[in-house]
Design goal:
The complex is a heterodimer of chains A (about 30) and B (about 160). Chain A is an alpha+beta fold and about 30 residues long. Chain A is built from 1 helix and 1 strand; from the N terminus they run H-E. Chain A is globular and about 35 Å long. Chain A starts with 9 loop residues before the first helix and ends with a strand. In chain B, a hairpin with a 5-residue loop joins strand 2 (about 45-50) and strand 3. Classes of the chains: A alpha+beta (about 30), B mainly alpha (about 160). The interface of A and B includes residues 6, 17, 24, 25 and 27 of A.
Chain lengths: ~30, ~160
């Protein structure tokens, strides 16, 4: 099963999105 | 942690192929800068953002798999729509309607499919089709009520 390779840094994700022409799916989560 | 929908292979594949996936952990005692920047008040919250960082969709709370997949597809559509890329937007909205007809976002996708087709072709009949479909398939939805002005457009 392929796992999702999550970015953890906002600026890195935005730069990658720009490069790849994709939107960002941003999950705000709480380990509560 | 909201692992729920992420354990589904279709969800994994769609996110991997169509989005840049980003996770930001929330801390309530001392809210993070990103929580403040995007007004995160509950978790999980999901944002669909373009590569400029602008938010095109904000979803709050747990979402079951079929609804989640539909929202992922709709989210791509709404990014295209808001960037005036109507053909690509229409393709995504159609995908939601055909593949997830029972998802919560399906009526909204039906509405926006009509608007995207109208903006692409300038044929008002696209709006009328949206109204007809909404009143037939989703008569109780808010989107059927929002499409009511299009009932005056000739078929």
């Amino acid at each position: 099963m392929a796992e999702i390779k999550w970015e953890r840094d906002f600026e890195t994700a935005i730069a990658k999105a720009k490069k790849e022409g994709k939107p960002v799916f941003h999950d705000f989560w709480f380990d509560g | 942690m909201n692992a729920g929908p992420y354990s589904d292979e279709k969800v994994q594949k769609f996110i991997e192929e169509e989005y840049v996936p980003l996770k930001s952990e929330c801390f309530w005692k001392e809210r993070t800068e990103l929580m403040k920047q995007f007004d995160i008040a509950w978790t999980p919250t999901f944002l669909i953002q373009d590569f400029g960082g602008r938010v095109h969709r904000k979803l709050v709370g747990y979402i079951p798999v079929d609804d989640f997949l539909a929202q992922l597809k709709f989210g791509k559509g709404i990014v295209f729509f808001e960037k005036e890329r109507h053909e690509e937007a229409a393709k995504r909205f159609r995908q939601v309607i055909e593949e997830h007809p029972n998802a919560g976002v399906a009526p909204e996708a039906t509405f926006f499919l009509g608007v995207a087709e109208y903006k692409k072709t300038h044929e008002a009949s696209a709006l009328r089709r949206a109204y007809d479909t909404l009143t037939e398939k989703y008569p109780q939805s808010e989107w059927a009520r929002r499409a009511q002005p299009y009932s005056a457009i000739p078929k």
